Amino acid sequence: MSEHHLLLCFLFFLSFSQILLSSCFSFSNSTKICPHGQSLALLHLKKSFSIKKSHSRFCRFPSYPKTEHWKEGSDCCSWDGVSCDLVTGHVIELDLSCNWLSGTIHSNSTLFRFPHLQRLNLAFNDFSGSSVSAGFGRLSSLTHLNLSDSGFSGLISPKISHLSNLVSLDLSWNYRAEFAPHGFDSLVQNLTKLQKLHLRGIFISSVFPNSLLNRSSLISLDLSYSGLHGRFPDNDIHLPKLELLSLWGNFNLNGNFPRFSENNSLIDLYLSSTNFSGELPASLGNLKSLQTLYLSSCQFLGSIPASLENLTQITFLSLDGNHFSGKIPNVFYNLRNLISLDLFENNFSGQIPPSIGNLTNLLKLDFFDNQLEGAIPSSVYGFSSLSSVRLQYNLLNGTIPSWLYTLPSLVELDLSHNKFTGHIGEFQFDSLEYIDLSMNELHGSIPTSIFEFVNLSSLYLSSNNLSGVLEIGKFEKLINLTDLDLSNNMLSLTTSVHSNSMLPNIQIIDLSHNNISGMFSWNVGKDTLGRLNLSYNSIRGFEMQPWKSMQILDLHSNLLQGPLPTPPNSSFFFSVSHNKLSGEISPLICKASSMGVLDLSHNNLSGMLPHCLGNFSNDLSVLNLRRNQFHGIIPQTFLKGNSFRTLDFNSNQLEGLVPQSLIICKELEVLNLGNNKINDTFPHWLGALPKLQVLVLRSNHFHGQIGFSKIKSPFMSLRIIDLAHNDFEGDLPEMYLRSLKVAMNIDEGNMTRKYMGDDNYQDSMMVTIKGSEIEFVKILNTFTTIDFSSNKFQGVIPECIGNLNSLRGLNLSHNYLTGCIPLSFKNLKMLESLDLSSNKLSGRIPQELTSLTFLEVLNLSQNHLIGFIPQGSQFQTFGNDSYYGNPGLCGFPLSNRCTTDEIPYPSQEIEAKFESGFDWKITLMGYGCGLVIGLSLGCLIFLSGKPEWLVWIIDKNIDKKIVRNKRSTRGRGARIS
């Protein structure tokens, strides 16, 4: 064809195109694509919601109110979030995700007037009060439905399973929505075209349907936190298109690791927080496209298969919180894409594999809480992006490798609770925000580079052998530091030079157990410091700063002198115990209205107690004033509804009466008034306190009979009672002894053994054992003891004490008790110390006491006991001191040997068994024969006078019986007259 003809054709084409475009624009200007009814429906839908930005705060994409630009009179197909069919104009897609919408979608909403709608996305809004109603089931053309994270609740309509064209269904994060019974099964059965099914957080409460594993079209399946239970199918999974499988958080879903065929496309697998168990199969290596594997907090065990090296695309590997054991395989040479490696909280042993050094893209390395040993690998290649290294709670040793000091992106370093030695090196970069090297064997000084880390928030170097002098000026650059723990080292601190305020964000400082001495003055954390621990140092003076947020101030076990520092008004815990403070308590201390623990014990404080001590804080649970020189009376006023748990006034010079206002201290567990000058009768009304466990009244001037209580079951929780060294008289208080239920039948095997107190304060007390005072720094909740020694009690020891079979210590010494040692004491199986010395007890020591196998201390001295000392078990360990002052006793360990008639009688228990099992039939059968033989032998012996030894024994015993009968007759005659 000629060039002339081509030009004509081109000109004709341009003309035709212009005409066509002109007619199109003319049509567009004269016709609107969106039908009027659909515009009205959309505008009505807009008006049914309010707009609030916070309702889309979790949106992962840019959020804005799309409906704000919907205007009446404009083409709805041009509105933001609306798409229409180009031919018919019908709305086929509505995307209102992240639209800040708030309101309720009712079943008659105009939302359901779009029968041609194919895609509907309402994710990340707030439709609280709405349900996935039957209206959604009327949108029969839907292929994609996304209602995730929009506050839907209640039952999901079964009509949703009628949307047979659905390819993608996402109802995730609507945690209060749930399927009706069998609703999930119907959905799975009917929606056969599904490629994506995300129901995270929807309550399904079903077993995993086998039919889902036959959907070859399935690409993404997320059933996390949906209440699946039962066993996951064991058969092989043939889903060639499946890229994501998430069953995370189905705690009752059992099974083994799923078996995938080699023909798979799996990229992400989440099985964390399920009950999957067993060993990982070698077929794990078939998942060659896998990028994410989360198996944390399951029940997997055994070793990691070497086939892990085939997962060359893996980026996130999380096997933490299982029971894996053995060595970590050295398979990381090919896993160069790995970003995060979590193997913590398992039972891995051996050394860290050297191939770890090849993970050049690694951001996080977490092996904490295993049994790894040896040194950290010294050869690494890169690690330029590594930001977190957590190897704490292992058995690693050696020095810290040099490469750890050269990581330019390192933010977190935790090597605590290992056995590292040597010095801490100098860091070359200042990116660190968290350092924990505590509980190792490191020595030397703290490196100066640490004090250059302006982003450092937490520094823990406690429990090492660090030494040197710290000048507080070094901390000046650490403006973001919140936690500082240098405790349990050998550090000293100079604080006198710098007076400028520093560490503006500090919250916790722990310098306890160091070598800090002299005057402590540090202007630090004026607005933020909440906890300061300087205990166990040699500090002689302390300058209180105007701290506004101080809650815990611990200065105990120092050498503080002078007047008592007044704690900040914000204080909750204040301890200056075991110092040398003197003077009186200022009433200003009562301005700390949030005080919970106040411990001023073991000082030289004096004067009278401020009246406000009992009522200045509703939160005060511990008031410890032990071992001071206070005088006067105990505060008489206590707040109603107070929190007092421990009141300890021991070892002062307090006098007067026990304040009856203590009766309102319903939370009181420990009341220690020992070693004072209190002059009162027994405070029986304390028996009404429901939680009282420890009552110490020893070494005062209490007097009179303890008597009876009008309370039905007094002292129901009491397990430690010490009334020693007073002037109580009369019988032992049997009623109270019967009420000590907590000293009976303690099942230590099934109870949690813990110490009295709480995390803030643990109780202590002095216990007298064998005349010596022993301090119990902590009191086990199973410890029970009774001390009534050094009073004027009289009468017999009640048998009911034998019911206190969980008793650990019993001291009734130095009284006027009479009668025998109760046989019921054989039931005190947990008894460790028994002191009945210096009384007027008589009779024999029961042989049954040898069954007390825990008995370590026994004192029966200075009584009127007679007979043979029981032998066996613990009694073989007691010396002369346990029995002296009883001239009628004989046998080991005394030098006084027993005569023939002092050989121990059979125990009462054996005699009782004999009597109860005595068979008269058997006895009578042998009686005749025995009588004849006995009389015949007797005649022969006395006629012949042989054997002489037997004749002598019989004569001697006959004489003794005659004497005893005469004494018995005289006794009976005296009583009668």
Protein model, in words:
The protein has 977 residues and is of the alpha/beta class. Helix content is 12%, strand content 24%. It is built from seven helices and 65 strands. It has a 32-stranded mixed β-sheet, with no helix packed on it. Strands 12-14-16-18-20-22-24-26-28-30-32-34 form a twelve-stranded parallel β-sheet, with no helix packed on it. A seven-stranded parallel β-sheet has the order 52-54-58-60-62-64-65, with no helix packed on it. Strand 55 and strand 56 form a beta hairpin. The protein is elongated and about 120 Å long. It starts with a helix and ends with a helix. The relative contact order is 0.02. The N terminus and C terminus are likely disordered.
In terms of topology, how is this protein built?
Layout: H1 3-30, H2 36-47, E1 50-51, E2 82-84, E3 91-95, E4 101-102, E5 119-121, E6 144-146, E7 153-156, E8 168-170, E9 176-179, H3 183-190, E10 196-198, E11 220-222, E12 229-231, E13 244-246, E14 252-255, E15 268-270, E16 275-278, E17 292-294, E18 299-302, E19 316-318, E20 323-327, E21 340-342, E22 347-350, E23 364-366, E24 371-374, E25 388-390, E26 395-398, E27 412-414, E28 419-422, E29 434-436, E30 441-444, E31 458-460, E32 465-471, E33 483-485, E34 490-494, E35 508-510, E36 517-520, E37 531-533, E38 538-542, E39 552-554, E40 561-562, E41 573-575, E42 580-583, E43 597-599, E44 604-608, E45 622-624, E46 629-633, E47 646-648, E48 653-656, E49 670-672, E50 677-678, E51 694-696, E52 703-705, E53 720-722, E54 727-731, H4 734-739, E55 765-769, E56 772-776, E57 785-787, E58 792-796, E59 809-811, E60 816-819, E61 833-835, E62 840-844, E63 857-859, E64 864-868, E65 888-890, H5 908-916, H6 920-944, H7 948-976
